[in-house]
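Predict fold of Microcin C ABC transporter permease YejB; 365 aa.
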Amino acid sequence: MGAYILRRLLLMIPTLFGIMVINFTLTQFVPGGPIEQIVARLQGQGDVFQNFSGSGDSGAQQTAQADTAGDQRYLGARGLPPEFINELEKQFGFDKPPLERFLDMMWNYLHFDFGQSYFRSISVVDLVLEKMPVSLSLGLWSTLIAYLVSIPLGIRKAVKDGSSFDTWTSGAIIVGYAIPGFLFAILLLVLFAGGSYWRLFPLRGLVSDNWEQLSLIGKVLDYFWHITLPVLASTIASFATLTLLTKNSFLDEIKKHYVMTARAKGLTERRVLYGHVFRNAMLIVIAGFPALFVSVFFGGSVIIETIFSLDGLGRLGYEAAVARDYPVIFGTLFVFSVIGLVMGLVSDLMYVWVDPRIDFATRET
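Predicted 3D structure, encoded as tokens:
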């Protein structure tokens, strides 16, 4: 097993390299880079994308001005000295060819140097560490609650297949699955965060303003008070999927011959379910653990963090993409990729933990 883990860890290196190559290449073709952003702001034009989407007389006038200046590289750069533009390019490293910039970036990454944000006076590492607790809180608690509730419920539904309990719980699960996470988040805010009904939970943030002055127990209670609604909103879709997956997996195993043989030997139903069926049925459920965690951590974090005003990695990545803050974009991408790859390895280790008969060490990679 140790050799298999080592091979998987070594395989992460080319995988990460490939992810960075693809995304770095894509950014070379995206308009509105950091230089254009700064130029547009200095010219009082707000967001640079207004220039790309401009139309009518205003757009024609801007185009004519750019032609007169003889500089088509940066819209709105007329009036700024070329020396200033050249200094910006040198400051951000855009005076070098793309290949050289990429190699320099990867060399710095090998030394855990992710650079500094273009538009914030803080290093990317400090920025990621500052935002990490919010996203980890959402991802870990949502995944944990989904598994703690969905697995027992799915097993119960499989045992009671076709009963009234199975019918009404399936109806509730389908309704929960049909509700988008962001819509459920808004509903929670309206109902329980002082929107129109009860003010039971805070409207925004991960902790209160006076969190530092609270006692240890007070800090814990305050944290859970703030995280309740975001976690519920993040869990709703994964809860439905995982419950049905667990039920169907157990139903498939219960119908197999080894279960009939175990019952014929006089084993109790509990022993049959948790001593024989569980480890076989849970393999497919455990296989979905990385995907569930990553989907909550990455996919749902942007919307949930925005709705509940949580300053996490998802929101950070979105704002960096809009502002073309490349060091932050690639820094968060690197963190997301590493977590996703590590979760894949954790999934394999959990396979072995649930069913020791599985031996990844004998597999060819």
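Residues 216-254 form the longest helix (39 residues).
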